[in-house]
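Good day; I would like, with your permission, to put a structural problem before you. What I wish to show you is a protein chain and, alongside it, a tokenised description of its three-dimensional fold. Please examine both parts with care and let me know of anything in them that strikes you as inconsistent. Thank you for your consideration; the sequence and its tokens are set out here:

***
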Amino acid sequence: MNTMIVHADRGSQKISRHIYGHFAEHLGRCVYEGLWVGPDSPIPNTRGIRNDVVAALTRLRMPNLRWPGGCFADTYHWRDGVGPYESRPPMLNIHWGGTLENNHFGTHEFLDLCGMLGCEPYICGNVGSGTVQEMAQWLEYITAPAGSPMAELRRRNGREEPWPLTYWAVGNENYGCGGYMRPQQYADEYRRYQTYCGNYSGRKLYKVAGGQLAPWNEIVMREAGPQMDGLSVHYYTTPVSAQKRGTATAFDTDMWFATLKAAAAIEDFMVETEGIMDHYDPARRIGMVMDEWGTWYDVEPGTNPSFLYQQNTMRDAVVAGLSLNIFNAHAARLHMANIAQLANVLQSLVLTDGPRMLRTPTYHVFQMYAPHQDATLLPVECDIGAIDAAGTALPRVSVTASRDAAGLIHLSLVNLHPDEPAAIRCEIRGAEAARVSGRILTGTAMNAHNTFAAPDAARPVEFTGVTVARGALSATLPAHSVAMLEIAGG
């Protein structure tokens, strides 16, 4: 029996809703086809943006969306993506397949999409191949009121009022695709670029510097910490190695456990990063920004290897649930996280094929976990069994609990075992557990996934197997499952 105690009368740490953020890069079919089809497309759209995708994503309570990259960001020149479509010059996407993009999805279109989704924009500026002036003028274009040169250009391009903007990254992965800089070099460049990142709307701009591993982060925090609000770090779950990731749907239990071991190790990475940040920022003013995370396998057979298109199974749902539970536990330092990516790339939430669209198991996890956004993290004491995964102990069940503004308690549970159910008993202390309802996501097999022929093969259903007695909940979680329970008092 896996037992846990939720202390409903404790807890003060807020779980930032921005931990449940998203990422859309100009990569493969994420933006073009996944989000944008153009106003003349026979696929139903609003000002060129797919109606079916927007309808699906609005159900997630998306807090933010990161754009335009990724590696693409440090090759993107924003002026090429504004103005009449016919006057926008095309560009070569050098990082992702050498495709020619027409720049029809630019600043106006991205911010229009954010408005449709009700989420905050998170924009990544170009340090690698751009200039300080270019970045400064982009911010002026987006946020300046009428009267400035860039505001006048914005008006001529059809937008009178500035857009609200808070989140801004100064470059992406500048240790690699963003310029192969040395950490001291990037810290100096960050300090210079951020100086001219003004926000003319009156709200404070949340400036994000690029991090990496410990030695890089040490130098950037030391040299540029006072000028930053967030430190960006990335973590991808790969089951074997970067050279041999395996496929998204054809895997055995050994590969399942290898994937879950890699996913669980994100906590070690976060703890190491927190240690460096705590040394230079003991007040925890600077937020950790995990703005790329998720699973990364070999591409689907027959697809362009540069487009990073992969299917999405119950294994990915379990990784998503486990990761989000870990993120919640580190909410004192973690301010934002962005799963990679929104559509048709890596651990996508939606997949499209021409006019067709489906929701992945990962999508369903994000929808189920939405009540944790801006809720209060509740302490949970656990006595949970372990899984011996090739010499590494994994918890049999991953858990997190929160209390929302209405006083409802939400308990998210993930059974990490691919084949065996997990019995749980959860005591609620400090509150009466009078009514419990919930939903559970699982599948007929550990590689269950949705296809365009069977789009609901893996979807959440009502979880009816929960009993309540003497202030404790009892249930059995099916193998490879993710559950969310809502607990109300009398």
